[in-house]
Amino acid sequence: MGPEWYRGYTERMNRLCLATLAFVLMLFAGGCQTSRHREFDSVHTGMAKDQVLAAVGGPNRTMHKNGLDRWTYLLWTPEGGGRQVREIHFSEGIAVYVGAPLAPRVSAEEQDQINAGTLAERSEASSVFEILNDAPADGSTERTSR
User: Where are the domains of the chain?
Assistant: First the structure.
């Protein structure tokens, strides 16, 4: 029983410890994602921001748009179905929407057509500045209603 036996034994034990550690870490990481997905089901409209934070933790992304604070969560489905995106919209600190991201009312192409039509209607303006500011070409401050 010389040093050769001991060296082989420690190498096998090191590999076994590393494999066990990797397995435990994979279980722990997977369990956290599944748990967060399940906890998100408890979030509902009417909850305050601090209640949402206590239930599911902080969001992956935040944004303020159209007077609403929007929190985005990226969740992994427990069945291995992939990533799900969920949003919570807050008005004055209270959740007013919980669910999948809302689709825009019009596509980007439709919005381009709307914008082009609006600019074409106002093409008699002498500069882009007048179009953007609704200022008459003669420099007066009178505004027309649309």
Answer: 3-98, 104-146
State the fold for domain 3-98.
Answer: Beta-lactamase Inhibitory Protein; Chain:B, domain 1 (3.30.1450)
Angstrom distance (rounded) from CA 22 to CA 16: 10
pTM of the model: 0.52
Euclidean distance between CA atoms 35 and 132, whole angstroms: 50
Q: Residues in the chain with pLDDT < 70?
A: 1-8, 23-35, 78-81, 118-146
Distance of alpha carbon 72 from alpha carbon 39, whole angstroms: 15
Which candidate, 61, 33, 39, 62, places its Cα nearest to that of 51? 39
Cα angle vertex 42, ends 39, 46, to 5°? 135
